Amino acid sequence: MSFQLMTDTTSDLSFEYYETHDICYLGLTVTMNGKEYHTEVKGEIENDWFLKQLQEGAEPVTSQINVGQFFEFFSQYAKENKPLLYLAFSSGLSGTYHSAVQARTMVLEEYPNAEIRVVDTKMAANGEGLIVDRAVKLRDAGKSIEEVETEILALCPYVRAWFTVDDLHHLVRGGRVSKAAAVIGSLVNIKPILDVDPEGKLRPVGKVRGRKKSLKTLADNIVADLPNSEEQTVFINYSGDKAAAEVVKEQILAQANVAEVLLFPLGPTIATHTGVGCVAVFAIGATPRV
């Protein structure tokens, strides 16, 4: 029996990608200036317009996908008796995963034979997207839902993420890093380097002087732990600075013979917490995150 792959819009793949690869999705909600925007609705909130609002001082907030939304969505597949594998936004950054787990329990009470599997990717943005992409390849190769889930669970700890932001204001405002950590970014021309820890939380891990050095550090760090590079697809996200993402891409390609490097803009949910100027790079590492 075939199965349905599902994710959420925090994976920051394009709507075209979801449609082409038959991936269903839900989205978190962004509230700005008293208005709610639903990130799963194509065209409701455009990236360029949203980044302009951030530059003009807007301070949006995000809301997780709630239990009711998941219950309604999961129930559709339970009624059709179609297995569903949901690859979720990191539980270290949102309550979305826990909402999905609660909804799954409720659906199984009503449809005890339903097959709904929920995986905490402990990743965000294209780190989550990379995991979705791997699941697509496994599914398309004929793997069963059980096989895909098993391989994805084994893969998740090895997904590496390195990113930099122009400043830590939005990450502090959203509670993703501490105020003490923000001191790093307050120094003149000092750029923070962050990663994602084993629990799926963001953490500052270093600082460098200048934007150029910060971008080189992203490329160097991802290449330093890149096994079987010729088989790897590296993902790069950016918020408002595609040229910087292209620089990182070029630096990676100069050091490693990777299969491809894909660039996607950060969506509004993640950009709410990074601000304008974030660049993030993701790949499968040789060693698990520690």
Description:
May bind long-chain fatty acids, such as palmitate, and may play a role in lipid transport or fatty acid metabolism. It holds the Pfam family DegV. Keywords: Lipid-binding. With 290 residues, the protein is an alpha/beta fold. It folds into two domains: 4-156, Rossmann fold (3-Layer(aba) Sandwich); 158-284, Hypothetical Protein Tm841, Chain: A,domain 3. It has eleven helices and 13 strands. The radius of gyration is 19 Å and the shape is globular. The N and C termini lie far apart (37 Å). The mean pLDDT is 94.
How would you summarize this macromolecular structure in one to three sentences?
The chain has 290 residues and is α/β, with parallel strands linked by helices. 40% of the residues lie in helices and 24% in strands. It has eleven helices and 13 strands.
